[in-house]
Design goal:
alpha+beta, 12-stranded mixed β-sheet, 10-stranded antiparallel β-sheet, 42 strands, Probable cation-transporting ATPase 13A5
Length: 1199
């Protein structure tokens, strides 16, 4: 986001105020729509340091502007004196922005608040910096030393003034304010002008109908916004009223309301608590439920920040795993485990909207704008219609001035023609399609918090899936363990046999190395840990009371053998210390003590490849890789276990032991084999998506070989396709980064076996198959190296990349973003746990959750399988096609009326009120509100609907239908004048009215009246209007039918019963009115009697127009094969990046590479180092702050 400084000028503001009054508020309205114009008009540019107003502009494609005033705080108003000496710190933290933001000796501080986040002006760095959080530059040592004993009351007061309250306050918007915002929408303002003009001309009925519809629409919108505001307010209100205990420096413990917390406060955790802020755990440990963040209610264990004396920033010290020390706002503390050094303490890290919960609320209040072609094209179409109306305005002015009509009447009639082209029913009509789709999705148990994304779902052409819990069953079944002894694997112990697992280090590791907790007498935790623990037949008991006497950290869990467990010499074991699992570390470890022993034992479990690196090489079996591959090839989930006896004799030594000490020189114990079955819905859904030519990609945290096997068994990788493993390595010393390509062979193990087995072979790709039917597979580590060092190579791999394994949450989000850069419309389906960032980043994120609506993603499916994906795509396609159809119809409706009215204007005439009313209410209004209710077609088509209005078929459709309309109406307008019974009734109006009692529709009308009457502007009775009205009306009905095409994206039109009934009724009524011989109808509709033969001719002309238009639309414009042929003939190709790479790679005989290694470096194989990539540690401080500022101000929430 770019920031520009401005200073207000009183003279300019006064001139703008006078201009607003003189323009009756029009200028003020323009300034409301364009805040940047207001700033440019009222202010002069200046430096940010001197500015009293800042103008912010987003750096995305939307270039949106925001105007914010600069707020000034005076610290001299505080209840205690503050030193004015420049050298003295105001707050104790030397890294704090507050010290650099306070201007001395004035004791003033300048701030700006953007989307609920406060930024203070840094007088040193000369930029606005975020306040309301502790700086990331603090080291672990700094945090412990500076904040461990609490803040002084004076510093708390300073921080409260600068950072603001620790409150996530969502204002319940007053109804009048919501109403004003809705009414001041540019389209509603134009609508108000249109309706005022129509009412002044006596067109009351339709105007009232549109007013009622608009008022209802505004009321519903205001009600919906108000309800959302109330719900969000109620959701966060309790957060602001939590009573907490803090430690104040030199004053001891103090109770206060959570809204008074400031960053740096020492928070005492009493037990169960809903956290009112983000905090760093300092002492003791606790178990929290982070379901509010992830949608998955699995207890997570948090560990204290180590008291390391390293000077590196605390987040860098913990690498990606810093979250294990952070208690996030809004999460529930469900269990605390004090150390022997006092209560569980935490330091307040972030407050208010800076917190994790604040980020979620801000993502709802300020959603990411959608860059969807439909919406930008729709705006261009409306501008085109408005320009057409302006042309009509000048045409009307010319005609009426030519006939010498008074100026007032001339302007009124010209304005009437201006308003004809833009239908006032447009907003309601476009909204109905999304409303119908949302209702149908709700019936399929798919809930949506971002309805605008439904149309976007119709364009999805790539869907990413998580594996565990999404493609495969959530729960794992124990298959067996493969013990290891003397660097050899032993005989497999199968759990299916029913025999208990024999006691030994392996059994002890399975019983203790987990993050399970005992809550209200029930064992709870990760499903994998639960299955592993159940396999031992041991039980968990609460041993907290005993532990307090011992004074051990992390204690409270005692494991004892159950009645079905094998004979054990150990009565119990106690978990003393835990280093929790993290997806970035891919392991966890614990320190436990066996009853009756003086020593301590360390146990580790995790990804086999990772665990093996921490074990002594002589304990790892020689055939480790082969054995691991043997099981992962069959789709098993494999976990490795390790152990070592700690050389410690005292409990106090265990308290201070580091993770590095525990996780070293371990003895490899064996492999735990778990079965992860495919869900029964997975295979048919993936097949359906494949047949619809929608790419499917797997992004998982699991083992690469397991992922490949699951992809093959599920059909994601078709039978016979090649899989190429991409392995990239970081640069080492003088060696640059490298990437190697290995072809995977398919083998069948034994006759009749269906399982896929994977073997890395050395054979090259068969001749002629190098460019097709191949899939790349890689790990998260390789992806990261490619992202850093092979930026030009990454798109080539992504075009055919199908398997991405061992991916961290951040890498998942990055991968989705890279796919979007290739112009894919990306869907992401996951369980909401580690996929939050990717779900939010994707065009359509679908969370499989039991909750009705999840903040983790725009869509939530209560059905826990991937059947929701094709449902969502079908409804998205139906809604998108409906939106296109409605827009085309309303465009044609405006053009049809514009052409008919323009022809009548030529002789100062127009249609009658009831003639307009029939077209506007009985046809257009009813049709638009029901056209979109056609259900989605049950089968996915192998191609997507058009994604933009400005595509050749759609533009030609409007242009050709407009041409047919002009031809038919112009011919009817001219031919009616040639009829023997025709006369110019507006010249003989009095004579005609005198003879109107002799009503007969079949009489021969003769021009036997004489008179020299003047032209009457706005007259209605004429043979031209009587002829043009049925043509226009039938044309409106027929284009509604033509633009309501069913297959392949919607069901046939006759299945939409209400819409079909309305069309048939409207057509029948039109024919009845036109062919009836009732004088009352003719007077009411302001028709003139004509001979039956002429009326039949008019009807035939309308019918011929329908037949021609239907043929052109269905046989030519909607003929996909014809358009593909034209594109091929003239060499038109898709401009999408992924299509470009597909064409380029198809011509490359050397692609895909197999069984070779390439190195990064300029000029080598066309691969270059990505100089744009820098890790956080490598970026200079000023650049990092600027980048963080930009990222933050884009307001994209990544958890």
């Amino acid at each position: 986001m770019e920031v520009f400084g401005y200073r207000s000028q009183m003279l300019r503001r006064a001139l703008c105020l006078i201009a607003s009054v003189l323009t009756c508020g029009v200028l003020a309205l323009v300034f409301y729509w364009r805040p940047q114009w207001r700033v440019w008009a009222c202010c002069t540019p200046c430096s940010l340091q001197e500015a009293d107003t800042v103008l912010l502009r987003t750096t995305d494609e939307f270039q949106r502007y925001m105007r914010k005033p600069v707020i000034c705080f005076n610290l001299s108003t505080l209840s205690f004196p503050i030193s004015k000496s420049p050298g003295e710190l105001v707050v104790a933290d030397p890294h704090s922005v507050i010290n650099k933001a306070i201007l001395k000796p004035e004791l003033k501080l300048r701030c700006v608040q953007v989307q609920k986040i406060r930024y203070a002006w840094d007088n040193v760095e000369k930029q606005f910096q975020k306040v309301g959080l502790l700086e990331d530059s603090n080291s672990c040592y700094d945090i412990h030393q500076t904040f461990g004993v609490g803040l002084s009351s004076d510093e708390q007061e300073v921080r409260r003034l600068v950072c603001g309250p620790n409150a996530i306050e969502v204002e319940i918007q007053p109804v009048w304010k919501l109403l004003v915002k809705q009414v001041l929408n540019p389209f509603y303002m134009f609508q108000a002008f249109t309706l005022t003009l129509w009412l002044s001309q006596g067109y009351t009925e339709y105007s009232i109908a549109i007013i009622i519809l608009s008022v209802l629409s505004i009321i519903l919108s205001v009600y919906d916004l108000r309800q959302q505001s109330v719900k969000l307010h109620n959701l966060v209100e309790d957060h602001n009223k939590v009573q907490v205990t803090i430690r104040v420096k030199d004053k001891g413990l103090q109770e206060l309301e959570s809204r008074f917390l400031v960053p740096g406060d020492t928070l005492i955790l009493p037990g169960k608590l809903s956290l009112p802020c983000d905090a760093i755990l300092m002492d003791g440990s606790c178990v929290v439920n982070e379901g509010m963040l992830t949608g998955e209610s699995v207890p997570v264990t948090k560990t204290p920040l180590p008291q390391s004396e390293h000077t590196m920033p605390w987040k860098s010290h913990s690498l990606e795993d810093y979250r294990r020390h952070v208690l996030f706002c809004g999460t529930e503390v469900i269990q605390i485990k004090p150390s022997g050094q006092g209560p569980v303490r935490a330091i307040v890290l972030k407050t208010g909207y800076n917190t994790a919960k604040g980020d979620l609320v801000r993502s709802i209040l300020y959603p990411r704008p959608l860059n969807f072609k439909l919406y930008s094209d729709a705006f261009k179409f409306i501008v085109f219609l408005a320009c057409l109306g302006v042309a009509g305005f000048f045409y009307a002015l010319g005609v009426y001035l030519h006939y010498g009509v008074p100026s007032r009447d001339t302007v009124t009639m010209a304005l009437l023609l201006l308003t004809v082209t833009v239908p006032p029913v447009l907003p309601a009509a476009l909204t109905t399609g999304i409303v119908y789709a949302q209702k149908r999705l709700k019936g399929k148990k798919i809930f949506c918090i971002s309805p605008q994304r439904i149309n976007m779902c119709g364009q999805l052409n790539l869907v990413c899936f998580d594996k565990t819990g999404t493609l495969t069953e959530d729960g794992l079944d124990l298959w067996g363990v493969v013990p290891s002894a003397g660097n050899c694997f032993q005989e497999v112990h199968s759990f299916a046999s029913g025999s208990p697992l024999p006691w030994g280090p392996l059994c002890a590791a399975m019983a203790s190395c987990h993050s399970l907790i005992l809550l209200d007498g029930t064992v709870q935790g990760d499903p994998l840990d639960l299955k592993m623990f159940e396999g031992t037949n041991w039980n968990m008991e609460d041993g907290s009371a005993d532990n307090r006497t011992v004074g051990m950290p992390d204690s409270g869990v005692v494991i004892k053998p159950g009645p079905r467990a094998s004979q054990s010499p150990v009565e119990s074991l106690r978990i003393l210390l835990q280093f929790p699992f993290s997806s970035s570390l891919q392991r966890m470890s614990v320190v436990a003590r066996l009853a009756g022993e003086d020593g301590f034992h360390a146990y580790m479990k995790g990804a086999p490849e990772m665990v093996a690196t921490f074990c002594r090489s002589e304990t790892v079996p020689n055939h480790f890789s082969q054995e691991l591959r043997n099981y992962t090839m069959q789709g098993f989930r494999v976990i490795a276990l390790a152990h070592k006896a700690l050389k410690m004799g005292r409990l106090s030594e265990v308290v201070n032991v580091t993770r590095e000490e525990v996780e070293s020189e371990l003895t490899f114990l064996g492999l735990l084999i778990m079965e992860n079955r495919l869900k029964k819905e997975t295979k048919p859904v993936l097949k359906e998506l494949s047949e619809a030519h929608i790419r499917t990609v797997m992004i998982t945290g699991d083992n690469l070989q397991t992922a490949i096997t699951v992809a093959k068994n599920s059909g994601m990788i078709p039978r016979g396709s090649q899989v190429i493993l991409v392995e990239a390595t970081e640069p080492e010393g003088s060696l640059p980064a490298s990437v190697s390509w290995q072809l995977v062979e398919n083998q069948e193990k034994g006759p009749g076996k269906k399982e896929s087995y994977v073997n890395i072979g050395n054979s090259s790709a068969p001749d002629g198959e190098g460019g097709s039917g191949y899939h790349f597979a890689m790990s998260g580590k390789s992806y990261q190296v490619l992202f850093q060092h092979f930026c030009t190579l990454l798109p080539k791999i992504l075009v055919n990349g199908t398997i991405f394994a061992r991916m961290s949450p951040g890498q998942k989000s990055s991968l989705v973003e890279e796919f979007q850069k290739l112009n894919y419309y990306v869907g992401m389906c996951g369980d909401g746990a580690n996929d939050c960032g990717a779900l939010k980043m994707a065009h359509a994120g679908i969370s499989l959750s039991e909750q009705e609506a999840s903040v983790a993603s725009p869509f939530t499916s209560k059905t826990a399988n991937i059947e929701c994906v094709p449902h969502l795509i079908k409804e998205g396609r139906a809604a998108l096609v409906s939106s296109f159809g409605v827009f085309k119809y309303l465009t044609m409706y405006g053009i049809i009326q514009f052409i008919g009215t323009s022809l009548l204007y030529w002789q100062l005439q127009l249609f009658g009120n009831y003639q307009y009313l029939m077209q506007d209410v009985a046809i257009t209004l009813m049709v638009c509100l029901t056209m979109s209710s056609t259900h989605a077609y049950p089968k996915l088509a192998p191609y997507r609907p058009p994604g933009q209005l400005l595509s050749p078929p759609l533009l030609l459709s409007v242009i050709l239908n407009s041409s047919f309309t002009i031809i038919v109406q112009l011919c009817a307008f001219l031919f009616v004048k040639q009829q023997p019974w025709y006369f110019e009734i507006y010249k003989y109006r009095e004579c005609f009215l005198a003879n109107q009692t002799k009503f007969s529709t079949n009489m021969t009308l003769e021009r036997n009246c004489t008179g020299n009457a003047t032209m009457l502007p706005g007259s209605i009775l004429s043979f031209e209007s009587t002829t043009l009205w049925p043509i226009c009306t039938i044309n409106c009905i027929t284009v509604a039918f033509i633009f309501s095409k069913g297959k392949p994206f919607r069901k046939p039109i006759y299945t939409n019963y209400i819409f079909s009934f309305l069309l048939i009724s409207a057509l029948g009524l039109t024919i009845f009115l036109f062919f009836s011989d009732f004088q009352a109808i003719y007077r009411g509709m302001e028709f003139l009697p004509t001979v039956t033969s002429w009326r039949i001719s008019v009807f035939v002309a309308a019918l011929v127009q329908f037949c021609v238009a239907f043929f052109v639309e269905d046989a030519i414009l909607q003929n996909r094969q014809l358009w593909l042929l034209i594109k091929k003939k003239f060499g038109f190709y898709s401009k999408s990046q992924y299509r470009h790479w597909q064409r380029k790679l198809a011509e490359d005989s050397m692609w895909p590479p197999t069984n070779r290694t390439d190195y990064a470096g300029e000029g080598k194989n066309g691969f270059y180092i990505n100089l744009a990539y820098e890790s956080t540690e490598q970026i200079p401080k000023e650049k990092r702050e600027l980048r963080d500022e930009t990222t933050e101000q884009h307001f994209l929430t990544r958890l």
